[in-house]
């Protein structure tokens, strides 16, 4: 059997335990290290990266209450929160070990142990450790992949970033305004990252993608039996953000009757699930976003005025891409490098190409620019990048071309509607006779 590449740390003051555990686990894992003193754990973790720690629960003679193990487990978790820790315990300490599971232990092994059980427990912990590391790598990639939006030569965007530095450490409600594709999600995440809640969850709720009939259940949760399919008590997305930040995207889509419920939650910091009379204390910070004109919706009695005043303690308007052309070169170079690497090509962008990009209206903003650059890289041969801009340019006012392909016609109509309404998804969808969700799906289909 081939050994699995993994680093295991075993900590126990009994040399016989250390020897037998090491001999057995060395059959399956490449590196197994032992320590006979828990005070050596933190120095060892600072010098080497381990996948799993096996930790005894008692180290001091005459003290068998398991508090030593719990203390050192908390110390390990302090510097490595995702580290799987397997506790080793005697039969009489099982209840304490079960309690330790609630505090973050991965598993516990009874001494004297069954060798197969020991291997199975450690092997599972190694797999969990690997998945956690991959998840963190992915999160770091995702975060860095969006950082280009936070780099800007535009005075307007630089002012926004400076404002975020002031706003983030507070709990003030923030309303982000801007067209679709301008980076509202990235800025919301940046506010959370710079806030005092950055160790707690950041929960994104896209109200534009939730069916109206499911709004309340998805957002606020429900009690078992509250409606036909409510088979168990279920927390809503806001409740899952306890201690952290809730980013309510497309807030203009929230129905009036739920606007009242949201207003109550913001004012009282208490939440009631569907079918419940009890109120649950909530400690969350709210960030809101929309590409709609909320003041107009207030005047049309489609949005509560008192809620509008509550959500815009600080209001930030993000300029569209055509309003920050100083960043066009920055963005195009970033996307060109990204997709050259992805599709294994070497390409350069000419000065004429930059001028061509700057002359387009970009109703889909940065998102549309990214799709355009990816498409251009795919269709270009090695050498100079051949831009593949959207079919309808800024100065294009001709009637629909004489084509019979339904998909081509559909794409042209969508682009015309977005151009007509300057990228406003709600207005374009209404003009096309589509729901917002249906228009989003078609935009993604055509790379708009």
Name its key features.
448 residues; alpha/beta; Rossmann fold; five-stranded parallel sheet; globular; phosphoprotein
Percentage of helical residues?
40-55%
Show unreliable segments.
137-142, 392-401
Rg, Å, rounded: 28 Å
Task: Assign an overall shape.
Answer: globular
Query: From the helix content, strand content and strand pairing, which structural class follows?
Result: alpha/beta
CATH topology of the largest domain: Rossmann fold
Average pLDDT metric: 84
Q: What amount of the residues lies in strands?
A: 5-15%
Spatial ordering of strands, largest sheet: 2-1-3-4-5
* Strands, count: 16
Q: How far from one another are the termini?
A: 51 Å
Question: Number of domains in the coordinates?
Answer: 4
- CATH architecture assignment of the largest domain: 3-Layer(aba) Sandwich
Report the major sheet. Answer: 5 strands, parallel
Q: How many H/I helical runs?
A: 17
CATH superfamily of the largest domain: P-loop containing nucleotide triphosphate hydrolases
Modified residues (4-aspartylphosphate): 56
GO molecular function: ATP binding; sequence-specific DNA binding
InterPro entries: AAA+_ATPase, AAA_lid_NorR, CheY-like_superfamily, Homeodomain-like_sf, HTH_Fis, P-loop_NTPase, Sig_transdc_resp-reg_receiver, Sigma_54_int
Domain Response regulatory: 7-126
Task: Tell me about this structure.
- It holds the Pfam family HTH_8.
- The modification 4-aspartylphosphate is found at residue 56.
- This is ATPase AAA.
- Residues 7-126 form the Response regulatory domain.
- With 448 residues, this protein is α/β, with parallel strands linked by helices.
- The chain folds into four domains: 4-140, Response regulator (Rossmann fold), CATH 3.40.50; 169-317, P-loop containing nucleotide triphosphate hydrolases (Rossmann fold), CATH 3.40.50.300; 322-384, Orthogonal Bundle (Helicase, Ruva Protein, domain 3); 406-446.
- 45% of the residues lie in helices and 15% in strands.
- It has 17 helices and 16 strands.
- The chain has helices at residues 15-25, 41-47, 67-79, 94-102, 115-146, 155-167, 184-193, 215-220, 256-268, 294-299, 305-311, 328-343, 351-359, 365-379, 406-420, 425-432, 436-445; strands spanning 4-11, 29-35, 52-56, 85-89, 107-110, 174-177, 202-206, 221-222, 234-235, 245-249, 270-271, 280-281, 285-290, 314-317, 347-348, 383-384.
- The strands form five sheets. The chain has a five-stranded parallel sheet, sandwiched between helices. Strands 7-10-13-6-14 form a five-stranded parallel sheet, with helices on one face.
- It is globular.
- Residues 137-142 and 392-401 have low confidence and may be disordered.
